[in-house]
Design a protein that fits this description.
With 385 residues, this protein is an alpha+beta fold. The chain has 5 helices and 24 strands.
C-alpha cells in the first residue's frame, strides 16, 4: 500500500505551473469570446403642445360673510329652535328671549301714546279757540300765546310717546333672533333658561353663522411674484388682477389635480411690511358645501399667456448633482446627456423650457442602462400622456 502511494501517477507529474500552462494553451486554442450586445433603451420624441403656466400657492378658505349672533336685548332665553351645524336661510328663527316684559312695556307705551294724543287734540282745540277769542278781544294776547305754546308742547309730547312705542316695538322684535344671512349655523353657546345680556359690546354671544356659497380663499404672494405679475401686465402677456378677474384653480388636501375653478377678485393695495407679501383673494363656487371655512388648500393662479412647449415624462428627467438632465440618443446611437431647464408639471409630463429640440430622441425607458458615451440599441416608443 505504501508503494502505491509513493508511485507517481499522471496527475502527480503535473505541478501548479503545468496547470497554468494547460489553461493558457486551452484559451489560445479555443473559440474567441462573444462580443456583448449594446443595451436596449426606448426612445421617443418630446410632445409639442400649447401649455398654460399656473403659479401655485397655499391658501386658507374663509367665508365671505360671517356673523357672530348676539342678543340685542337682555332677558331669559326661552327658546333655541335650530339644529346645530345645519344650513339655515336668511330670516330663519334661531332664538327667542322671554317676550313678556317687553310686551308689557309696549302696552304701557301705547297707553301713554293714547294719552298724549288726547292731550294734543285738546291743546289744539284750545289754541284754535284762543285765536278766535283774541280776534273778538275777549282774551288777552298773553292767554292766546299760552294756548299756542301748550299746543306745541302737547305735539312734542305726542311725538315722544310715539317714539317710545317704536322703541318698545323694536325691543319686542329683538326678542326673536333670526339668521341675518344664509349659511351654516354653529353650535349653541347658550341654552334655553339662561339669562343673556344684550345691547352693548359685552352682549352675550349665542352662536355663529357663516355663508357657504361662494367661498373665498386668501393667499400671500411675495414681492418677486407681485413684481413679475406687474411686468407681465406691462408687457401685455397677462392682465393685472387689480383690473381683471384672472382664472384660479383649487385643490383640497385629499384631491388630485385642481378640480375647483374660480377667479381672483381682489388684490391688496400695499405690501405688508411685516411679511413682505401682498394679500390676494380668489372666489370659488361651492354649491355642495365641500369647501369649509378655515381649511388649507392648494391654489393655482394663472401665469403668463399660453405658449408652445416641449414635454417629456417626468420619470425621464435625471439629476446630475444640482442640475437636471435628460438622456438623448444621437444619430450614432450614442447616449448624450442634455442639461435642461424645466417648467411646471402637466400630469405625468414635465415642461422643458430649454435644452431640447422637437426632433431629439429622448430615452424614456431603460434609464438604468443609459450612460453618457455608451452605444445603445434604440427602440422607438411613444410618450403616454
Amino acid at each position: 500500500m505504501d508503494d502505491l502511494n509513493r508511485r507517481p501517477g499522471r496527475l502527480g507529474l503535473v505541478g501548479p505551473a503545468g496547470i497554468v500552462a494547460l489553461v493558457i494553451a486551452g484559451c489560445q486554442g479555443g473559440a474567441p469570446a462573444p462580443q456583448l450586445k449594446p443595451p436596449q433603451v426606448t426612445v421617443a420624441q418630446p410632445i409639442s403642445r400649447q401649455v398654460t403656466d399656473w403659479d401655485e400657492y397655499t391658501g386658507r378658505l374663509a367665508a365671505p360673510e360671517s356673523v357672530d349672533l348676539r342678543a340685542r336685548v337682555s332677558g331669559y332665553l326661552a327658546q333655541a329652535s335650530f339644529d346645530e351645524g345645519a344650513l339655515v336661510r336668511k330670516g330663519d328663527l334661531l332664538f327667542v328671549i322671554d317676550r313678556r316684559p317687553y310686551q308689557a312695556t309696549l302696552e304701557a307705551a301705547r297707553a301713554a301714546l293714547a294719552g298724549a294724543r288726547a292731550r294734543a287734540e285738546l291743546a289744539d282745540l284750545n289754541a284754535t279757540r284762543a285765536v278766535q277769542l283774541l280776534a273778538a278781544r275777549m282774551i288777552a294776547q298773553r292767554d292766546a300765546d299760552a294756548a299756542s305754546e301748550e299746543r306745541k308742547a302737547a305735539a312734542a309730547a305726542l311725538a315722544a310717546a310715539g317714539a317710545a312705542v317704536r322703541a318698545a316695538e323694536l325691543d319686542l322684535g329683538f326678542c326673536e333672533i333670526r339668521a341675518p344671512i344664509a349659511g351654516r349655523v354653529g353650535r349653541r353657546l347658550v341654552t334655553a333658561g339662561n339669562y343673556v345680556a344684550g345691547g352693548g359690546k359685552d352682549a352675550t354671544l349665542l352662536t355663529t353663522v357663516v355663508s357657504i356659497d361662494p367661498m373665498h380663499v386668501y393667499i400671500n404672494a411675495d414681492e418677486r411674484a407681485y413684481l413679475r405679475y406687474q411686468r407681465l401686465a406691462e408687457a401685455g402677456s397677462r392682465p393685472s388682477s387689480h383690473n381683471q378677474a384672472n382664472a384660479a384653480r383649487l385643490a383640497l388636501a385629499d384631491e388630485t389635480g385642481f378640480p375647483h375653478d374660480g377667479r381672483v377678485d381682489f388684490v391688496d393695495n400695499q405690501v405688508d411690511p411685516a411679511t413682505g407679501t401682498v394679500l390676494g383673494r380668489a372666489v370659488f363656487p361651492n354649491p355642495d358645501g365641500v369647501l369649509t371655512p378655515g381649511m388649507f388648500a392648494r391654489v393655482q393662479i394663472l401665469g403668463p399667456a399660453p405658449y408652445q412647449a416641449l414635454l417629456v415624462p417626468d420619470a425621464a428627467v435625471g439629476i446630475d448633482q444640482s442640475r437636471r438632465i435628460v438622456y438623448v440618443v444621437g444619430a450614432d446611437n450614442v447616449i448624450q446627456p442634455r442639461l435642461v431647464t424645466l417648467g411646471r408639471q402637466e400630469g405625468r409630463l414635465r415642461v422643458v423650457r430649454e435644452g431640447l429640440e422637437a426632433g431629439d430622441r429622448v430615452v424614456i425607458n431603460g434609464l438604468q442602462r443609459a450612460r453618457p458615451g455608451v452605444t445603445v440599441e434604440p427602440v422607438d416608443g411613444a410618450i403616454e400622456e
